[in-house]
Backbone:
């Protein structure tokens, strides 16, 4: 009789343990399923990859655009030297307004790489399609489209 | 002594069951997690569109000789694109590229996929697209509007 009691106790312990283990097992499988659904898509996704080649080409084209016989990048270098970005900004604004009129909205910024201070900026509202950065000497040029 | 032996045997039987349950659970969990499909068509169509733009535009300026090559030989040959499906799952082309340069349109692939673009969120099991409008310089220092569209079907692999 005493032996049987011991066996009952042991069996009860194992039944409870088995139920607990089974609960954990089902929770684990359920959580795996949830995590699989919520698994982020590849970061290669064109929507997620902010810096893209197309915006890079557009940034190049803005900087290479010639106004009054000089490229925009020359105006930028001149602005950096004399610390006045007004003329450069006005040229960029004309370009971005033209793009905006044709359905392409972009923001253009110039930052000081060392201090991080924004030196110039033209905002026309970005479509969040992509962005491109370019380091020119101590300046960082950013285009968001 | 006899009782102890009996108890050990019962325990080992339980242990086998528990180990089996845990092993099955681990395998099931891993299978459930990794068998969930990842749709990379959005990335694929974006890469395709970027590749075409990279071919046509160099440092912000349209390459006239490449455009001429596209006119004569098509986008695939001019831009060295190999878009043949090697899975054997499909009978026809799984890609569509459309390049609009200032109103001149160049196409490659199955044009049927074009109209599906822009409806990916409202419908399932349709081709996935990447569309961009942007400006680049022409050789005469004027800005030209370009539109590129890349569409990837591969419905069977992503349904």
Residues:
């Amino acid at each position: 009789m005493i032996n049987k009691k011991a066996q009952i106790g042991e069996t009860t312990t194992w039944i409870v343990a088995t139920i607990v283990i089974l609960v954990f097992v089902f929770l684990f499988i359920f959580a795996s399923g949830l995590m699989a659904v919520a698994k982020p898509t590849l970061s290669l996704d064109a929507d997620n990859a902010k810096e893209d080649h197309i915006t890079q080409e557009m940034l190049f084209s803005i900087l290479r655009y010639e106004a009054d016989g000089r490229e925009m990048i020359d105006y930028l270098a001149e602005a950096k030297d004399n610390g006045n970005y007004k003329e450069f900004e006005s040229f960029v604004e004309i370009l971005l307004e033209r793009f905006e009129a044709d359905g392409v909205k972009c923001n253009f910024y110039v930052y000081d790489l060392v201090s991080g201070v924004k030196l110039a900026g033209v905002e026309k509202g970005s479509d969040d399609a992509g962005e491109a950065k370019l380091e020119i000497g101590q300046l960082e040029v950013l285009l968001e489209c | 002594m006899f009782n102890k032996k009996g108890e050990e045997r019962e325990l080992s039987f339980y242990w086998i069951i528990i180990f089996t349950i845990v092993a099955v659970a681990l395998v099931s969990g891993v299978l459930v997690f990794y068998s969930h499909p990842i749709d990379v068509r959005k990335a694929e169509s974006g890469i395709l569109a970027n590749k075409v733009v990279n071919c046509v535009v160099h440092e912000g300026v349209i390459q006239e000789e490449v455009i001429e090559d596209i006119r004569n030989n098509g986008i695939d040959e001019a831009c060295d694109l190999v878009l043949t499906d090697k899975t054997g799952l499909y009978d026809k082309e799984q890609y569509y590229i459309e390049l609009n340069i200032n109103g001149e349109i160049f196409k490659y692939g199955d044009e049927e996929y074009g109209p599906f673009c822009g409806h990916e969120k409202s419908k399932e099991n349709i081709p996935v697209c990447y569309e961009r409008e942007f400006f680049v310089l022409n050789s005469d220092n004027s800005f030209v509007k370009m539109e590129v569209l890349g569409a990837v079907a591969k419905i069977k692999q992503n349904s």
Chain B is about 40% helix and 25% strand. The CA atoms of residues 23 and 29 of chain B lie 10 Å apart.
